Amino acid sequence: MRIKKITLRSSNKPKTSIRKAGVILFLIFSVLIQIYNAISTLSLGAEIAKIEKEKKLLVEKNRELKSQLVEKSSLTKLNLAAGEKGYSPVQKTIYIETGSTSAQLLY
Amino acid sequence: MWRVKIVFTIFLASFLAVIFRLFYWQIVKGEELSIYARSQQQINSQIKAKRGDILSADGSWLSASMSGWEVNLEVEKLNMTPGEASEIISKILVEKRGDEEEDKINQQEEKERIYNLISGGSSKWKLLKTKVKSEQRSLLEESGVEGLVYSVDELREYPESSAAAHLLGFVGKDDDGNDRGYFGLEGYYDIILSGKPGFLNRERDALGNPIASLKGKNSEAIGGTSLLTYVDRGAQIILDSKLKEGVEKYQAVSGIAVIMDPKTGGILGMSAYPGYDPRYYNEYESSLFLNPIISSSFEPGSIFKVIVMASSINEAAVEPETKCDICSGPVKVDGYDIETWNQKYRPESTMTDVIVNSDNVGMVFAARKLGKEKLIDYIQNFGFGEKTGIDLQGEASPAIRKRNDWKEIDLATASFGQGIAVTPIQMLRAVSAIANKGVLVEPRVVQKFVGEGWQSETSPSAKKQVISEKTALKVISMMSEAAERGEAKWTYRKGYRVAGKTGTAQIPIAGHYDAEKTAASFIGFAPWDDPKFVMLVTLFEPQSSPWASETAAPLWYDVAEHLFVKFGIHPDKN
Nearest 5°: phi and psi at A16? Predict the structure, then answer.
């Protein structure tokens, strides 16, 4: 009967484990970074949407105010409103001298 | 063994099925799905630029861009019959104009239009109206009609209604459905007023929020530039109202009136009647959109005499004291008899008398002294026969007869403003040169461009010395005497130092002059020693009287009374 020579090979188990752990840790870290980026991007996107909505509301409010200003500064509408309240345009302009009796009465 | 083969076959078949399916979705349907995915993920939209405003000299709005709404209806969500909905919606969308009858007709037409829209076609969405005001939107929201959806739109408001309509023009649509200005300032400065649209191109997530990334091309819209004009809002409104009153009072077919600052060329007011309301331009005949002040010509009549006289004096051909030696009766030219307007002849009239009495024979004398060649030169120097360059869309200029075609009779008739065609703006500009010490300026409506946080003056008006200051002063003196002692003396306002001239021109119709139809004009400025304004008023075919002294002149003074106060022109103490 032949006796097989059994030789024991020195094992690299500890090094392999460290490498495996490193790779796994790196993978976990990468995944976490990706998740973090994705969440940041999402929340930034939501922030942008919120700011844009606020901007849109402010722009609309601004334009509303402008519409009111344009409406209320209309001379034509002012004339109409004055007419309705019984005011009428000046029919005649009289000039008086500063030293005159009429001016003294007025001032 | 056979079990292994079966399992292997099943796995192979499944694998092949997956491959084929992948091929179908990736290759066959790939492009379609890619487009669909992009439409879900990407936002591509044009950002409309806000149109610039048009402002009067004091910064008030003549034409303003305001927020408006586009109203759409999702037909499936409508909670009432089309008839009921159109009744409610039309009452809100139709603006009341103050005329009960007109409002009723407009509302009925709108109701029918909306009814036909809602009940016709198979489309789920119906565009009911664009350019709806915010107040109208609020009323629609409270009306109880469901299914209405609103999106932002821009509308153009003209707060002074139809005032300065010909000067402003209006904003309509081009062939592509985009806003575009037509006529007046809206047309001339359309590109400047329009600005430049922006665009938005970015990706969005499943919730519709934008994805903050470097991808995507965005460009902000560049708002249109606003225009600050020389127009005096108060003067413009008075001009419009007085012109309308005048046309009606003197039963004229139409009328024009225009006011200018003779020093800067700035147009302070411009009015033509009949006019139109730029808010409802689509309800008017398109012939009304043309501005007759810049695009229609007429024979000016006696108001042209001051130009011919100024030319003659400038050439030292005559002086104000020169006596006319042919003024004792009519003068024959090329077989035609040239007569005075009232058959009155004053021998030994001076040139001043000729202007005061509007003597046609005296003008023939002055024109002959000047000579045909020099007269044509001065007509051209005063800007006739070419456009003034005013910044309004639609200016035209009638051609002046060619030099070689002038006969003796043409020289004679041109001396009193017949047989020569001019536009009102050309006539006003020429007389303003007399008021401005002989300097001809280019008329201009816009004085500044105004943007967000900046403003810039428009390029200065071109100026040209056409007659000497000395000549101008002589003619001003003659015109002030004409205003005070001429045929319109009954309407003269003492003390305001008005220099002016009446003109009653026969209108040529089908190759001959109609004695009944006239163009009655008064042109003048005040105060003559330092003119604040020059104004032309013309009434076409007044029926109450053909004479300018009885129609255009009193109308001119009616407007001028307000301008005297506005510009601080006080009457002389004496």
Answer: -60, -40
Q: How far, in Å, are A49, B40, B42, B220 from residue B204 at the CA level?
A: 10, 8, 6, 19
Interfacial residues of B (vs A; Cβ cutoff 8 Å): 60-61, 64, 66-67, 133-134, 152, 157, 159-161, 163, 204-205, 207-213, 233-234, 237, 561, 564-565, 570-571, 573
Provide the edge-to-edge strand list for the sheet that holds B42-47.
B42-47, B198-203, B218-219
Calpha distance B166→B61 (Å, rounded): 16
Q: How does pLDDT run across B124-152, given as a tens digit for each residue?
A: 888 888 888 888 898 999 998 999 998 88
Given a contact cutoff of 8 angstroms between Cβ atoms, the answer to whether B521 and B552 are in contact is yes
Using a 10 angstrom Cβ sphere, with 0-12 exposed, 13-18 middle and 19 or more buried, the burial of residue B205 is middle
| Residues B88, B78: Cα–Cα separation, whole Å | 13
- The SS3 assignment for B488 reads coil
Burial of B147-177, coded b for 16+ CB within 10 Å and e otherwise, reads bbeeeeebbbbbbbbbbbbbbbbbbbeeeee
| Angle between the N-to-C axes of helices B408-415 and B305-314, in degrees from 0 to 180, rounded to the nearest 10 | 110
Does pLDDT of B43 surpass 90?
no
Give the whole-angstrom CA distance, residue B423 versus residue B443.
13
Instruction: Provide the token pair at A97.
Output: 């001298």
Portion of chain B with pLDDT greater than 90, in percent? 63
Sign of CA dihedral B181, B185, B189, B193: negative
Q: Residue B560 forms beta bridges with which residues?
A: none
Distance of CA B534 to CAs A29, B250, B530, Å? Answer: 84, 23, 11
Contact with chain B for residue A42, Cβ under 8 A: yes
Chain B residue numbers touching A70 (CB-CB < 8 A): 61, 64, 66, 157, 159
pLDDT digits (tens, 9 = 90+) for B484-497: 999 999 899 888 99
The pTM of the full predicted model, rounded to 2 decimals, is 0.83
Express each pLDDT in B391-443 by its tens digit.
999 999 999 999 999 999 999 999 999 999 999 999 999 999 999 999 999 99
B213·A77 Cβ contact <8 A: no
Structure tokens at B518: 């006239």
